[in-house]
Amino acid sequence: MPEILDGHALISAIAYFGGSFDPVHEGHLQTALELLDRFPFERLTLLPAARSPLKDDGAAFAHRLAMLQLAVSCHARLQVDDRESRRPPPSYTIDTLTELRQELGTDQPLVFILGLDSLLTLNQWHRWRELTDFAHLLVVTRPGCSPDFVGEIAEWLAAHRVNDPRMLECAPNGRILLAETTPHAVSSTAIRAALHQGAAPETQPLPASVAGYIRHNQLYGVSPPHESRTDF
Questions:
Q1: 12-221 classified as CATH 3.40.50.620
Q2: Which of 72, 111, 190, 206 fits a disulfide with 210 by CB distance 3.0 to 4.6 angstroms?
Q3: pLDDT (tens digit, 9 = 90+) per residue, 191-228?
Q4: How far apart are CA 232 and CA 222, in angstroms?
């Protein structure tokens, strides 16, 4: 018999972890695996943004997708979805969630995972108030982090926030859960900056396959294999 909560049977959610992944790093992977261990997701898929309207240009989508595919190849529980590359720009999350809801039907719980930094600026997203019309939001936070939500985001969050993870399984959409995860002192921004300053990809918190791909394709200002940046 399925577990019942508030008169509704709990259905394992399908989760999508959105981001630029420019590049994907160990922090992304460890967070995704931790969420899989903590939540009874049917599956978890990494969803690279074709190009966020709010971010500067970085590596081309084809490179970011290839790096993601290499990174998850060692993790059978993770998948990659390239759908945002198949739509004309700009890339809007609301369009992706609309597509997913049409594919999954009206009853399947759908969870979109994002970071706290994204939630704090969510009112800059296209049709942001409608996100919960199609999915739940699972917001990844850090232990001890208690941000002050203000204005329209605070009001919207208060109307949708839940504290019981099971609430994401007894409805298809409409709820927001903040979940503390293990902190990882790593960011794509810092990695790109280090690479541009001459750091070797192999010294960064990247899967070995991703570091090799960056080296081979000379991304983020990295020199090709066996070439030194030293001027003589």
A1: yes
A2: 206
A3: 999 999 999 999 999 999 999 999 999 999 998 876 55
A4: 19
